[in-house]
């Protein structure tokens, strides 16, 4: 009898213990609930939530997350200012950060953000982006090891001849006129 494997949103073990930590700084409870629902699809990830910049900075220092998701409109500061304060902490300098916002910003990379996720967010696209961003440190480590290959032994290509990592897929901005069944619709 053949065995069928059904495609799911999360192909990883549904009972996996969280092994990686993500910090979400967001003051709107509905947005927090929606992000928690999204992270339920990724049981290997531990989502920590802070409701203001001060708490977010303290949690980031203490918990050492591998990804920062920052709302831009926080009750005690702007998300850009919070990220600047986080970058002053040695172990947070290179942690990838994503702006999660309803503001109409198009580019915050010069402010230290890797991406902007616009609210309302498409769940499937957000999960793809989340997986991609968290895979980057593993890819970068693998590339660093690959460039340390001492000599071409006939089985591997020299590091200089390897293909570069492709650019990231742009995160689409949802159109307001298109209803979508898997859209997170909280705009605070």
Q: Can you walk me through this structure?
A:
With 188 residues, the protein is α/β, with parallel strands linked by helices. The chain has a single domain, classed as Response regulator (Rossmann fold), CATH 3.40.50. It has helices at residues 29-39, 53-63, 79-87, 123-147; strands at residues 20-25, 45-50, 67-71, 97-101, 115-118, 121-122, 183-184. Strand 3 (67-71), helix 3 and strand 4 form a beta-alpha-beta unit. The longest helix has 25 residues, at 123-147. The termini are far apart. Residues 1-13 and 149-162 have low confidence and may be disordered.
Write the layout of secondary structure elements.
Elements: E1 20-25, H1 29-39, E2 45-50, H2 53-63, E3 67-71, H3 79-87, E4 97-101, E5 115-118, E6 121-122, H4 123-147, E7 183-184
Helix pairs in contact: 2-3
Short description:
The chain has 188 residues and is an alpha/beta fold. It has four helices and seven strands, in the order E-H-E-H-E-H-E-E-E-H-E.
Computed structural class: alpha/beta
Neighbour order of strands in the largest sheet: 2-1-3-4-5
Can you say what the CATH homologous superfamily is? Answer: Response regulator
Number of helical segments with 4 or more residues: 4
Distance N to C terminus: 52 Å
Biggest sheet layout? 5 strands, parallel
Low-confidence runs: 1-13, 149-162
In percent terms, what proportion of residues is strand?
15-25%
Overall helicity: 25-40%
| Cα radius of gyration in angstroms | 19 Å
Shape: globular
Overall mean pLDDT stands at 78
Number of individual domains = 1
CATH top level class name: Alpha Beta
């Amino acid at each position: 009898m053949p065995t069928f494997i059904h495609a799911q949103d999360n192909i990883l073990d549904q009972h996996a213990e969280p092994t990686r930590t993500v910090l979400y700084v967001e003051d709107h409870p509905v947005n927090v609930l929606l992000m928690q629902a999204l992270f339920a699809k990724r049981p290997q990830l531990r989502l920590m939530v802070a409701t203001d910049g001060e708490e977010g900075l303290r949690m980031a220092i203490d918990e050492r997350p591998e990804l920062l998701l920052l709302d831009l409109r926080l009750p005690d500061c702007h998300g850009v200012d919070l990220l600047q304060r986080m970058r002053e902490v040695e172990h947070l300098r290179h942690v990838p950060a994503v702006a999660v916002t309803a503001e109409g910003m198009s580019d915050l990379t010069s402010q230290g953000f890797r991406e902007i996720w616009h609210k309302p967010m498409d769940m499937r696209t957000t999960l793809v982006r989340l997986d991609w961003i968290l895979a980057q440190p593993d890819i970068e480590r693998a590339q660093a090891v690959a460039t340390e290959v001492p000599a071409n032994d006939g089985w591997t290509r020299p590091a200089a001849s390897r293909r570069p990592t492709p650019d990231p897929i742009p995160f689409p901005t949802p159109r307001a006129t298109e209803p979508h069944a898997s859209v997170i619709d909280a705009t605070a």
